[in-house]
Specification:
Layout lengths: L2 E6 L16 H22 L3 E7 L2 H9 L3 E4 L5 H14 L4 E4 L9 H12 L4 E5 L5 E6 L13 H11 L4 E4 L11 H10 L6
């Protein structure tokens, strides 16, 4: 298996705009850097037999990700699903035959989450998705990488699973308290701060 972990990242200075009422721009940029570093650290700690690709249209994001040991790809648009499609084509051109998509804003992500998704893939799941608490998708396993279209956004967990079922692919749903949460709005930030300090990563 030639597995790639793909992490899409918005420009640091545009990240987390819905936190603007509680965090100034510099603090939001620092938060995004910390969240990205945390996700990449958990992937490294998992010792997953995978390469890691960070895709972003922000050169500073790519430089930071490269410092942390990731491959990088310059995003050509400004849409998440289009960026993931671009990354998927790039990976497949290099012989990748499995993808694990992880958003960059998963403050509670654990090694166990990563390995559980990998184990689902080893057990035969062609699509495995982890739901967020609000119905989004906080992790997506694909083997083959082009089994379904990317549908990240509101209600994406249901849409990813429905696509897999309609295509006749073997699919699995993964639910984890630590993968339930990303950071989009102030309430998320409050919950995560009480659950486990961001500095824990």
């Amino acid at each position: 298996m030639n597995l790639w972990v793909v992490v899409p990242v918005k420009p640091f200075d545009q990240a987390k705009s819905r936190l603007a009422d509680v965090l100034p721009p510099a603090a939001r940029a620092r938060l995004m850097r910390d969240l990205l570093a945390g996700v990449l650290a958990q992937v490294r700690a998992s010792e997953l037999p995978a390469s890691v690709l960070v895709i972003s249209r922000d050169a500073s994001v790519r430089a930071y990700a490269a410092e942390l040991g990731a491959y990088t790809l310059a995003e050509t648009g400004d849409d998440l699903n289009a960026a993931l499609e671009q990354a998927r084509r790039w990976v497949m051109q290099r012989g990748g035959d499995a993808l694990l998509i992880l958003p960059a804003d998963l403050p509670l992500l654990t090694v166990e989450d990563i390995l559980h998704l990998y184990d689902l893939g080893l057990a035969g799941a062609e699509v495995a998705a982890a739901a967020s608490h609000d119905g989004g998708t906080n992790a997506l396993w694909l083997r083959p990488p082009d089994g379904i279209d990317f549908a990240f956004g509101p209600d994406s967990f249901r849409r990813h699973i429905e696509q897999a079922a309609a295509a006749g692919l073997r699919w699995a749903a993964y639910r984890s308290e630590t993968l339930d949460w990303d950071v989009d709005v102030p309430a998320d930030l409050d919950f995560v701060a009480h659950y486990a300090p961001l500095s824990a990563h």
